[in-house]
Structures are given as C-alpha cells and as structure tokens.
Amino acid sequence: MNNVCNLFGARYPVVQGGMVWCSGWRLAAAVSNAGGLGLLGAGSMTPELLREHVRRCRVATDRPFGVNLPLAGRDASSLVEVIVDEGVKIVFTSAGSPRPWTRYLKDKGVIVAHVVSSSRFAAKCEDAGVDAIVAEGFEAGGHNGREETTTLCLIPAVRRATSLPLIAAGGIGTGRAMLAARALGADAVQIGTRFALARESAAHDNFKRLCLSLEEGDTRLLLKKLAPTRLVKSDFMTAVEEAESRGASSEELKALLGKGRARLGIFEGNLTEGELEIGQVASLFREEQSAAEIMRDIIDEYENALTTTREWSTRADF
C-alpha cells in the first residue's frame, strides 16, 4: 500500500475524477466499492443536491469517498458548508486557488488535494498546506491548464517541485498508463474519461455512445480565454473554433457558451447544441463497462505490465 492509499484509505491508487454531470453517487460508490476512491462532482450540483448525493453515497458504500469542489463557482462557500456539515473527509479542490479554503477544511478534519496544471502552481499548493496534488496534463477533458503541458512532461516536473503525494491525471485510462505515470514519479492516478463512460456514470447514453466511437484527433482544447476545455467535434465546437479563429473576445465567447451548455450536452444528450467535454483517451475505448469492470481491467493490466517490465529488466541484453 502506498502513501496515497494510506492517505485516503483506498485499496488501489486509483482516483475517479469528480466530473460535472457524470460523477454522482452511483459512480462514486461503485468506484469506492471496487477499491478506488470515488469522488462526487460538486461542480454541477446545488448545495441541496450535493447533500443528497453525499447521503446516498454513504448508504451505497462503506468505503471512503470524497467530493471534487471547483473553487471558482458561485456556490463554493455554500458547498463547503455542506461538505463540513455532512462530515465529508476527503475534498479535491480545483479551478481556483486552494489557499482561501485549505486551512479551514483541514481544521475541520478534511483531507485536501488540489488539481494543478503546472509545477509552479504545485509549489504554491504545498505552501498553502494541501495534503496531496493532482497534476493534470493537456490530454485531459473538462477544464485544463493554459500551459498545454502533456502529462508525460508535467508529472516529472511536478515531482521535482514538491514532495507531497502526487496523483497523475490527463490521458490515463489503462493499467499500462498507470504504470507509466508511476514510473514518472506519481504515487497514484486520477481517471476521468473512462469512468465518465461507465455504466454508473450520470452522463446521457447519447453522450456515452458518441464518445465510445471517437477516433484520434476528434477532440480539441478550446475556450482558452475562459477556462480551457477539451471539446468533442460537434456543431458547437465548430462555432467555438470559428469564433476563436477570428479573435473573439472573452465576452463574445461567454455569450456563445451561454448557460447550461455542459448540462445540455453531457447530461441531456443534445449532441448538436450541447458542450461535449471528454479527454483524448476516449478513443481507446469502444464498450460501456461497469465501474467494477473498469477497475479490474486497470489493475490486472497494471500488474501484468509490471511483471513484464521486471522480466525485461533481468534480461542480459536489456
């Protein structure tokens, strides 16, 4: 058992990303029951809905689970109140500075991890007092960093910048990728895309089917003037590309994005007008699986790849 497993009380060093419109109590509980750490995606929840999901998740699993909390959202303070009031013990903060909330949460007995996209921000997180860092590379879906640093480059850079437990994210969806991340210095991995397409994910079947048919190059990192987001090819993505290519301002992009685009695409399944967020690794997968099946595949592949690597290292001609 490594330091991340010890920190969170999980059997395996696998964290399920707390994705908007995907990561409800069914998915979080299923991942935790399978030995990983399930996260509720508070970014698409009202405080009242988060409270309901926390309570239902607690009934569905006796294993540790946590909440992903985007700090830039309007309801951040109210969501924090729910988290503390409901006795949630693990919080992954993202999309904002962890400094305003980390000490408060830790004083309430909460373990805090924060998501970053650069080694500079990783060092700031350590100064802010977080317990662990998630380093998320360019390949990830959802909100990303403007630096466009790939996971392969980001993980060793963050490892050099901090001694905290390090969780690699972005483009990781298999056991072999997990082994590679750990070889680069990560202690664990956070997997979003593959779990977003799981049977227990709250995403609409239309969205899942589309993402399970994607090929390489079918996503783009756009909306960099707002919050960098990896979008699936669609009419909406084309409109965003055209607006950005002619130099649209952030105000124009906000107007184009409007309200509820992600809900419309991911949760309601409108593939034409909705915002469709997914990571590059989606192109590796073709079938919907349960969270338990995904966990089993990842761990089995990781262990087989580790055995093969050890065999290579003992060969005389290596």
Give a description of the structure.
By secondary structure, the chain is of the alpha/beta class. It has 2 domains: 3-203 and 288-313, TIM Barrel (Alpha-Beta Barrel), CATH 3.20.20; 205-281, no CATH class. The protein is 43% helix and 15% strand. The protein contains 14 helices and 11 strands. It has an 8-stranded parallel sheet. α8 (175-183) links the parallel β8 (166-169) and β9. The model has no long low-confidence stretch (mean pLDDT 95).
Keywords:
8-stranded parallel beta sheet; single chain; alpha/beta; TIM Barrel; 43% helix; 14 helices; 318 residues; globular; 3-stranded antiparallel beta sheet
Question: How are the elements arranged and paired?
Answer:
Elements: H1 3-8, E1 14-16, H2 25-33, E2 38-41, H3 47-60, E3 65-70, H4 76-85, E4 90-94, H5 99-107, E5 111-116, H6 119-128, E6 132-136, E7 142-143, H7 151-161, E8 166-169, H8 175-183, E9 188-191, H9 193-196, H10 205-211, E10 219-222, E11 229-232, H11 235-245, H12 250-257, H13 261-267, H14 291-313
